[in-house]
Automatic annotation (TrEMBL):
Site, as annotated: Transition state stabilizer: 20
General function of this protein: Catalyzes a trans-dehydration via an enolate intermediate.
Species name: Chlorobium ferrooxidans DSM 13031
EC number: 4.2.1.10
Domain of life: Bacteria
Name under which the protein is recorded: 3-dehydroquinate dehydratase
Reactions catalysed according to its record: 3-dehydroquinate = 3-dehydroshikimate + H2O
Primary gene name: aroQ
Amino acid sequence: MSGNSILVLNGPNLSRLGKREPEIYGHQTLDDINRGVAESFPDIRFVFFQSEEEGQLLEKLFECEDRGGFIGVILNAGAYTHYSIALRDAISAVGLPVVEVHLSNIFAREEFRRSSVISEVCMGVISGFGANSYHLGVRSLLGIAPRKKRITVAVNGD
């Protein structure tokens, strides 16, 4: 896996950060978060992309795989986390490691937010650390970049 680029992909409603439910998501805007990530990792080239539309997120994933040079993807899928089979399939299809991130702890919120249809096909999930979830995601990607997309562990010969 060569390259020094990371795609930071954000789904619906993340364009409203800083305004939408700041008691849950914080006061930073998405631009603030993106700037902080880029400043913290100056040797990495970041491609930041946000869309309210599912199809655009899929296209960006495929584009990065086709273009090459990407270490992996940091993904905050927003509400698509809970029901987008298309996004799940796209993550499975691309040859890039994906780290799922969330600003809030989705497991401490409403029942419908506690499930993720994409987690199984991501390298890992980081949830509940606010904007720092993105930083932790980048650190995780940099640590796993030499490994395969997913690791399966067999227990008792299964």
